[in-house]
Amino acid sequence: MRLLLRLLIGASLLAPGLAGAACVVSLRWDNDPPYSMQLADGAIGGISVDSARTVLHELGCEVHLVRLPWARALRELEQGRLDVLTGTFRKPEREVYAYFSGVIEEPARNILFMSRQAAARWPVTELLQLRDTPFRLGAQIDVSYGPGYQVLLQEPAFHERMEFSANRASLWRMLGKGRLDGVIADEHTGQQELVALGLSELIRATPVVVSSEGAEVAFSKKSVSAEFVQRYADALRRQIAEGHYARIRARYLQR
């Protein structure tokens, strides 16, 4: 039965104009506020989830939400077991297995958060200024944080002190306990998570912008056609032009 469902999904996405075919799309979510999260009433929402769901409904598709950590979501997309992954940065190795919508939504900034003690000790303005220090950095597995971060990854001594996790909450807790000096996260996501964890008095956002490139929506090449991706991109542009996307953002960023 599961195989049959996947075949039906694949057929409807690879041939989205097929008369009578049901379009069912799997969309990833995780606890990543304000972009993706479980709301107080138990429903799943967030900027990225609501935006993608609105576009997919416009295209006549039923949305099947799947909770996945980031690294696993990329693997599922590659294998064709996940159809749509929002908030994805385009990289050559990902273009092998995924189509990309193009940068349409407003770019988000990844910034460096530090404990108050670390911020006082290292008042830096760029990530690479920490290269020759004993700074202990936390980051999520398989997340792209820009060129400066990639340089630090190639520094053996710095890399040895880094902590990687699929769960950002564990990194925040390590930072709060003094086991890390800093964590990279989206500026909005980081601030909301720190409040939720009760760590906003111990950890502060810094002026260090690690990356500010625009993310895209990625689609598995094994289950989605290039023509469907173009239709999605066109519908998303309409959503932005008509103000729907701005209203979604305002709803979550004003919480």
UniProtKB/TrEMBL annotation:
Matches recorded under InterPro entries: Solute-binding_3/MltF_N
Domain Solute-binding protein family 3/N-terminal residues, every copy: 31-254
PANTHER family, alphabetized: ABC TRANSPORTER SUBSTRATE-BINDING PROTEIN, MEMBRANE-BOUND LYTIC MUREIN TRANSGLYCOSYLASE F
Signal peptide per UniProt: 1-21
Family to which the UniProt record says this protein belongs: Belongs to the bacterial solute-binding protein 3 family.
Keyword presence, Signal: yes
Organism name: Aquipseudomonas alcaligenes (strain ATCC 14909 / DSM 50342 / CCUG 1425 / JCM 20561 / NBRC 14159 / NCIMB 9945 / NCTC 10367 / 1577)
Identification of the protein by name: Solute-binding protein family 3/N-terminal domain-containing protein
One Pfam family per UniProt: SBP_bac_3
Keyword annotations of the record: Signal
